[in-house]
Design goal:
The chain is α/β, with parallel strands linked by helices and 595 residues long. It folds into two domains: 313 residues, ABC transporter type 1, transmembrane domain (ABC transporter transmembrane region fold, Up-down Bundle), CATH 1.20.1560.10; 138 residues, Rossmann fold (3-Layer(aba) Sandwich). It is 62% helix and 10% strand. It contains 19 helices and ten strands. A hairpin with a 2-residue loop joins strand 4 and strand 5. Helix 4 runs antiparallel to helix 6 and helix 6 packs antiparallel against helix 7. The longest helix is centred in the middle third of the chain and has 53 residues. The protein is elongated, with a radius of gyration of 35 Å.
Length: 595
């Protein structure tokens, strides 16, 4: 077994409190939907104008009265109200369709962008990140933004237009009563802004707590067999229950704040309307205004009050969205330390597979003071089969990590065919390499889909050939659907050896000039190991192969063996030559071959 990649990752730093400026970071995704925004705004404006026109008809009906002489006018005005209502229904329907479509499309863009960014981040990011929290951002946080950019944005814009339009019409209808309403607005808005800060803080806490719970659940579900095997179900259930309760408490605190805020605003709004209505009623009794004009004013006041109260609810939703935008924005703003160069150098065509390490030193970013490699200098010829052995923690797997540029070296340089790997595009570099890890990763899907991961454009025949070379066919053909059999998440229906052979088939299908094998046959029984060793021997012909092994019997035929100790080369030579030196390799061989 090769050494752990690096020391345990430190705890995640405390997240900054979100503010509304975080929403601005999402605006580029919104701007991309200009067509739908324009259509939605058009429908929104029409709906708002129709709504504002209805009180005009009501005023005339009331002022003309319900007498036989005005029957024709009453019929006409009520007919006009029906037409306006139909227009309102159509425009409202279109508004809903466009704004909800905007929300869906914006969130789809954000999800793609966030996933794309995560897929391009380097090893340093994943050393400290938790996959469950990332998934929570891709799902829960983006869903929160969908509501904001869809329904909430529509409600907010509609009520802003209604509020402004109603206030203008109130001034036109009765400047005196309008002045009273306008004077009451600061008393309503100031508590809204003040309380909103608390709502925003509690909403962010609720989202962060939920992300922690999701991360824990993802981790335990992904290793459920291990949890069950050690009888850890009750402990996991208890811990997740505590996390869910904590998330509920945080969400409840945010909800209570929003509920109190909403009740205060509604009371202030409708208390103000009641006072204005009382004042207007006195004006009607004094013949200072007509009943119809008062009715018109009251309807506009109700529109304004409704708009303002709904804006208070939207304000709370925006606070939650700000927290989600903050977390998504942090991911989008993360810049990997390992990047493509500004002016990449093309790789040698056709590639030979020569590798050179020049005075390389390396320490993991999470422990920069703990050097795990170096100084290391070694040249590997094209087509050479080089074995790397040594105790756990010697730096064997780290060599593979820096060769594939999951991390950059601390000092020195690595080159392939004379081209420094940091001068290559990452895609070009990794196209030169196929790897079989010690712990193969198998995805939910079919056996064929898992093998095709190495080369998506590969034909079915090429996949079948790779499967045959890696001894996958003997067990796959016993399954009901052969290579098209679905094997469950992480290949849970397969044995460890079967998963290993699928990983080897991937490497064979990759057909790269450099082959990296990290204990590639460690999970195989003697018979399968013989078959796979023969397949690997064929696959390694004409290719440069680096083989990490603890079982020295598997590397006797290597062209050269490097013995690592504490990140440095302790010995170097063939199997026979190293045995005669009676050094570190000879001690390892003596322990294994005489046990």
């Amino acid at each position: 077994m090769s050494e752990p990649a690096h020391p345990a990752a430190p705890a995640s730093p405390k997240k900054p409190r979100a503010d509304f400026s975080a929403l601005r970071r999402m605006l580029p995704f919104l701007v991309a939907e200009r067509l739908y925004i324009g259509l939605g705004l058009g429908a929104l404006v029409v709906a708002a104008l129709v709504t504002l026109a209805i009180p005009q008809a009501v005023r005339r009906v009331v002022d003309f009265g319900f007498t036989p002489e005005t029957r024709g006018l009453v019929d006409a005005y009520f007919g006009m109200i029906v037409v306006l209502t139909a227009l309102l229904a159509v425009s409202s329907s279109l508004r809903y369709y466009f704004v909800m479509t905007i929300g869906e499309r914006v969130v789809a863009r954000i999800r793609r962008a966030v996933f794309e960014r995560v897929m391009t981040l380097d090893g340093a990011f994943f050393d400290t990140a938790r996959s469950g929290e990332i998934v929570s951002r891709l799902t829960a946080d983006t869903t929160q933004l969908k509501s904001t950019f869809g329904a909430s944005a529509s409600i907010a814009l509609r009520n802003v237009i209604l509020l402004i339009g109603a206030m203008v019409m109130m001034v036109v209808t009765s400047p005196k009563l309008a002045a009273m309403v306008l004077l009451a607005i600061p008393a309503i808005v100031l508590p809204l802004v003040a309380a909103g800060r608390g709502v925003r803080k509690r909403s962010q806490a609720a989202q962060d707590t939920l992300a922690e719970a999701a991360s824990f659940a993802t981790e335990r579900i992904g290793a459920v067999r291990v949890v069950q095997g050690f009888g850890g179900e009750h402990a996991a259930i208890s811990r997740f229950g505590a996390a869910v309760t904590s998330a509920y408490d945080a969400a409840r605190a945010a909800t209570v704040s929003r509920a109190i805020l909403t009740s205060i605003v509604i009371f202030l709004v409708f208390a103000s309307i009641t006072f204005v209505l009382w004042t207007g009623a006195k004006a009607v009794m004094a013949d200072e205004m007509t009943p119809g004009r008062l009715s018109q004013f009251v309807l506009y006041a109700v529109f304004a009050a409704s708009g303002l109260s709904q804006l208070s609810e939207v304000y709370g939703e925006l606070a939650q969205a700000a927290g989600a935008a903050q977390r998504l924005g942090d991911l989008l703003a993360t810049v990997p330390d390992v990047n493509d160069p500004e002016k990449p150098v093309e790789t040698v065509r056709p590639p030979r597979g020569e590798i050179r390490f020049d005075d390389v030193t390396f320490a993991y970013p999470t422990a920069p003071d703990r050097r795990v490699l170096g100084p290391l200098s070694v040249s590997i010829r094209a087509g050479e089969r080089l074995a790397i052995v040594g105790p756990s923690g010697a730096g064997k797997t780290s060599i593979f990590q820096i060769l594939m540029r999951f991390y950059d070296v601390s000092s020195g340089a690595i080159s392939i065919d004379g081209v420094p790997i940091h001068a290559m595009r990452l895609a070009d570099l990794r196209a030169l390499i196929a790897v079989v890890p010690q712990d193969p990763v198998i995805f939910a899907g079919t056996i064929a889909e898992n093998i095709r991961l190495a080369r998506p454009e590969a034909s079915d025949e090429a996949i079948r050939q790779a499967a045959a070379q890696a001894a996958v066919l003997p067990f796959a053909e016993k399954l009901e659907h052969g290579l098209e059999t679905r094997i469950g998440e992480r290949g849970i229906t397969l044995s460890g050896g079967e998963r290993q052979r699928i990983a080897i088939a991937r490497a064979i299908l990759r057909d790269a000039p450099i082959l990296l094998l990290d204990e590639a046959t460690s999970a195989l029984d003697a018979e399968n190991e013989r078959m796979v060793q023969e397949a690997l021997a064929r696959a390694m012909q004409g290719r440069t192969a680096l083989v990490i092994a603890h079982r020295l019997a598997t590397i006797r035929d290597a062209d050269r063996i490097l013995v690592l100790e504490a990140g440095r080369i302790a010995e170097e030579g063939s199997h026979e030559a190293l045995l005669t030196r009676n050094g570190a390799y000879a001690r390892l061989a003596n322990l294994q071959f005489t046990a």
